[in-house]
Design brief:
With 129 residues, the chain is mainly α. The protein has one domain. Helix 1 packs across helix 2 and helix 2 crosses helix 3. The two termini are 52 Å apart.
């Protein structure tokens, strides 16, 4: 039993409710792999199951924003392509194959920057509201 760390005249706080986890993920490891995981979990002061859960969930959470960023960058690529092709075409200008290839290179090189700028403009807009 742990010694009490309560301060006199202070109401003890309840620990958060345990989350019911009823799904299992399983894998097989070599002795060496298991020893590595056991050591890392121990270094973090966690049970192996806790450590593995945190590593898995952190990996999932980190990969979601990356996919979202990639999708948004591709959306911005389409936007850049449309903006830069429709305007000249609406003015009656023709675009050569070489001009279109150059435009595709421009879009490829600038889609991430355009996505970052668009997200930043939304962030600024939400702060102003």
């Amino acid at each position: 039993m742990k010694p009490s760390t309560a301060v006199p005249n202070e109401t003890p706080t309840r620990s958060p409710k345990r989350i019911r986890r009823d799904r299992t993920v399983s894998t097989k490891l070599t002795e060496t792999e298991f020893a590595q995981i056991e050591r890392l979990a121990g270094d973090c002061g966690q049970w192996i199951s806790e450590w593995v859960r945190h590593v898995l969930l952190d990996t999932v959470r980190e990969s979601e924003p990356l996919r979202q960023k990639a999708a948004f960058a591709e959306l911005q690529a389409i936007r850049l392509l449309l903006i830069n092709t429709l305007e000249p075409l609406l003015r009656g200008e023709k675009m050569s194959s070489d001009q279109f290839k150059e435009l595709l290179r421009y879009v490829k090189d600038n889609k991430r920057k355009a996505a970052e700028e668009m997200l930043a403009s939304y962030a600024i807009g939400s702060m102003e509201e």
